[in-house]
Amino acid sequence: MKRTLPLYGAVLAGMLYLAPTTAAAENISKHWAYHEMNYLITNDLMKGDEFGHYRPNDAVTRAEFAAFLVRTLNLPTASSSQSFVDVKKGDWYYGVIQQASYYGLIKGDDQGRFNPQAHIDRQQMAAMLKRALNYLDIPTANSPITFNDRTRIAKWAYADVQAVVSAGLLAGKPNNQFAPLAQTTRAEAATVLYRLIHLEKPTSGGKQSIITNYSHDYASVVSKQAANSSKVDGAGVFTASEALVSYYVHPKSFMQDSPAYYQFLKLSTVVDNLSAKELNEKVLANKGNLANMGDAFVQAGIDNTVNAIYLLSHALHETGNGSSALIKGIEVGLDDNGKPVMVTADNRERLTDIKTTYNAYGIGAIDADANKYGAERAYSNGWFTVKDAIIGGAAFVKEQYISKGQDTLYKMRWNPDNPTVHQYATHVRWAEIQAKKIYDLYELIGAQKTANLVFDVPNYKGQPSTVALPSPAKQYALHPALAGATGMTTMDVSIKTYPNTADAASIITTLPKDTKLRVLGENGGWLQVRADGHEGWILAKDASLENSLQVINMTIMLNVRSEPSTTSSIVGTVKPNGFIIGAVDAEGKFITEGNWYQVIYDGKKGWVHSDYIVKK
Description:
The protein has helices at 34-42, 62-73, 94-102, 122-135, 155-166, 186-199, 218-226, 242-249, 276-282, 294-304, 308-318, 325-328, 370-381, 386-400, 409-414, 430-445, and strands spanning 207-217, 330-334, 340-342, 352-357, 453-461, 486-489, 493-496, 507-511, 516-523, 526-531, 534-539, 543-545, 548-550, 558-561, 570-574, 579-582, 592-593, 596-601, 604-609. It is α+β, with helices and mostly antiparallel strands. The chain is globular and about 90 Å long.
């Protein structure tokens, strides 16, 4: 019989479970393992020390991790004992070591030692976890692992690492490393325990996960998505690296039952037993014009066979919790040609049939002028009340995305059926962020206890078993337009490991004014440079580049051509307001041919038309 884990296993001994404390606990909300640790803490499984500290980065011993597994699996008392020469009666871990050994979770060395006080490394942890899976009768797959340091994994542990990575219990570290000899921290121990606890939760009680296979090759998908202007940030300033795109495209980057996993929730089903009164009281109170609109969201879900909690989350996000101009109402009238036009003080007298419009989901609200275009779209669609906007907008979402097969947040963002085509956002974390909001709403109203939840998880051809989240320095793409340019700093500037203004820890050093530099690439108004023996990022405005040409403010990218002709091949692009290096002659004058400038793009010659260059 397959064994299942108790949801709230007995309290663990050792470092993970310390005495309760009355002191204020440290804030771990910004720690990468916050969700997993908070789950254990909230359910009274993880305790702080006498000072209220959870010490997520402290190392764990072999005895402690054995104890974690014994308590998590709720192992029965051992009916016989296994002796290790270095485990004595009276040691706090004596009993749990006996249990772990009896049930096959641990082994000693060839001299009969268990080495209980030694810090456990990641490959040893993998071995214990694999034996825990065996105890639970959970089948595992030995999918190929692609870590850069896989040759450093000991032969005796290699199959165990394959199994637990494939099962989703362990993931890699930055730069695609497994780090088999790295010590395991309390945070990592809490994380794998969380995953193990949830691995075998029953799905018959309203939760079901299905796998959909796609014929697209994973590496090709990542390459296409990275080239499709995927962004690091929600503001759309910084282009994401291929490594960062890969992490967010990879389905196994998101653990089952975590908030991020809700990006796989199928949205093409009605939420059962959803109470409009509860939505009004718990979610929509003090949400501007969305207040008391619970009935409209429930009806929108039923009428369009769409998850109403998703619609609610979408509306709260797009309207800034009910505070946006589009949901407060914007007047629109018809011009002489019968075209909807947003009302202004200058055009009011010329417009007819003026009505107040509402837009709950930001439909048609393009960045160039979100209020204007969103309001005019609302007029065209007849959204003249907030209820109209909620129900009518839901029909649009259903028609444009869900009915076209993009019925999960993941599919809206990455469209695995046709990657890069008809995608909702550019931010790599968009689906994860929206999933967290949906998860929180389910938790807030308790709908996860009554609703039928179906998760549709993609699987690509050639998909690796796991992908590591790159370090911040590896998350930013390097645009080559300015590569090879030279110049100098115009003031004392901080050179940083990645482009940001907030993280003081990212500062490498300060470059004095007039420090010579060479550009390696550009991203989001920052330059990656080599200067004074350092490589890092500085703001482009703090540098003066030799022979730079600026592109005008235009609505499309400027093509760099191989020859001074619009029929020649395109060798690259430069964004509006961006810079490119002009080629100069012996006298320092820009080289031109007719209306074309010769430029240096990624170290190679190219041409751009002068109509698109700022005149000096």
